[in-house]
TrEMBL record:
Domain of life: Bacteria
UniProt organism field: Paractinoplanes ferrugineus
Residues covered by the N-acetyltransferase domain: 12-177, 201-367
PROSITE patterns assigned: GNAT
GO cellular component terms, A-Z: cytoplasm
Protein name: N-acetyltransferase domain-containing protein
Pfam families for this protein: Acetyltransf_3
GO molecular function: protein N-terminal-serine acetyltransferase activity; protein-N-terminal-alanine acetyltransferase activity
InterPro entries (alphabetical): Acyl_CoA_acyltransferase, GNAT_dom, Ribosomal_N-acetyltransferase
Length: 378
């Protein structure tokens, strides 16, 4: 790719790197986020490394059919970051795009503007497909991908060597020449204000810091024995689930939340919405509570809060929830939240020791909740 005048984007300009960019390049790459998500980088990244990159690295990327540019402020020409593509497969018209933004320029939409600008140019001038790969916990980059018109395609297992001798899974996004480049709509948007609350309970997204609490909750026999599958989770599985919760939310597959006591802030349980059938507008909820918070109406309040959010902010029209036939307490929670018993499904779920168990299904429709209103007594 040959560019003379540069590429203009919204609030950014892509131009060639210059020798006077060396200090900003060194500062940008010598950053914890870069070390975390770009394992090939030397750590620390010194001025000498930056000089070598500008003297040799840039030209080698172009020589191999790729391209790399400085992201600059269009008014001041200040270096904000870098962007480019490599791993070009000419027979497929495919390449992989990557970028970095200096700590001094984050939070301004720089990455999204730069990715959109370079992607549009590359796909308009010969490439048919661009891929963008991110770590599961690099949700900032996943948000950039979606905002720049890249569609999530799946996960690639053990595709990137890490600094500890292991291999990391990456999520693959792609944009085609035929795609519009407009931001992709999300099946599950962020919570308004970052949380849901009725003044008694507060729901906030599950995150990496919740691993110990989640391991304790899901380690309770009465919780894991009624989960699907009915197996006690390992610490690794719980840690991974918490680390990947935001990525799953961005993918539109599920929204997992911690139920907390609004007064004390103490975690009391969890609730999740699983978007099983976007085509039909059906999702499922599930919840668990710590023993000390059971019988206080917290689960009912949480179920109503997540239902109100789903019906108001997403295309979900029908919420389902299942319980074991003998779990009268959970059935009472659902009834108080407005759900109606709809079906008795024999041998639907896997049970302990290779058995099968029956499932009692409850359903809540948007019009039911709006018509009846909250029922939080008791």
């Amino acid at each position: 790719m040959s560019i003379i005048a540069g590429i203009d984007g919204k609030g950014v300009r892509l131009r060639s790197f210059r020798s006077d960019d060396v200090e900003a390049v060194a500062a940008g790459y010598d950053d914890p986020l870069c070390f975390r998500f770009l394992p090939p980088l030397p750590a620390p990244f010194t001025l000498a490394h930056a000089e070598r990159f500008l003297a040799e690295g840039v030209s080698s990327i172009f020589a191999e059919g790729g391209a790399v540019f400085a992201i600059a402020d269009p008014q001041t020409d200040e270096l904000l970051g870098g962007i480019g593509f490599d791993k070009v497969v000419p027979s497929r018209g495919q390449a992989e795009i990557g970028y970095w933004v200096g700590p001094w320029a984050r939070g301004r939409g720089v990455a999204t503007a730069a990715v959109r600008a370079l992607s549009t140019h590359a796909l308009d001038t010969g490439l048919a497909r661009l891929e963008l790969l991110t770590h599961w916990d690099n949700t900032m980059s996943q948000r950039v991908a979606l905002a720049a018109g890249f569609r999530r395609e799946g996960a690639r297992r053990a595709v990137l060597p890490d600094r500890d001798g292991g291999r990391a899974d990456l999520i693959a996004f792609a944009r085609l020449a035929s795609d519009s480049g407009q931001a992709l709509p999300r099946l599950l948007p962020d919570l308004p204000g970052g949380e849901l609350t009725d003044g008694v309970v507060r729901l906030r997204p599950l995150g990496p810091g919740d691993a110990d609490f989640t391991l304790h909750l899901r380690g309770l026999p009465e919780v894991w024995q009624t989960s699907v599958p009915p197996q006690e989770p390992s610490a690794h599985e719980i840690r991974q689930r918490c680390e990947r919760a935001e990525a799953q939310w961005l993918a539109g597959t599920r929204a997992e939340l911690v139920i907390t006591d609004a007064a004390s802030g103490a975690p009391a349980g969890e609730i999740a919405l699983f978007y099983q059938e976007p085509v039909t507008g059906q999702a499922m909820i599930g919840y668990s509570m710590l023993p000390s918070f059971r019988g206080r109406g917290f689960a009912t309040r949480a179920a109503q809060l997540i239902a109100l959010w789903a019906f108001a902010e997403t295309d979900v029209h029908r919420l389902v929830a299942g319980t074991l036939p003998e779990n009268v307490g959970s059935q009472r929670v659902l009834e108080k939240a407005g759900f109606r018993r709809e079906a008795y499904l024999r041998s639907r779920l896997p049970g302990p020791g290779g058995t099968r168990v029956d499932d009692v299904e409850f359903v809540l429709l948007a019009e039911d909740l709006l018509a009846e209103g909250p029922r939080l007594d008791g």
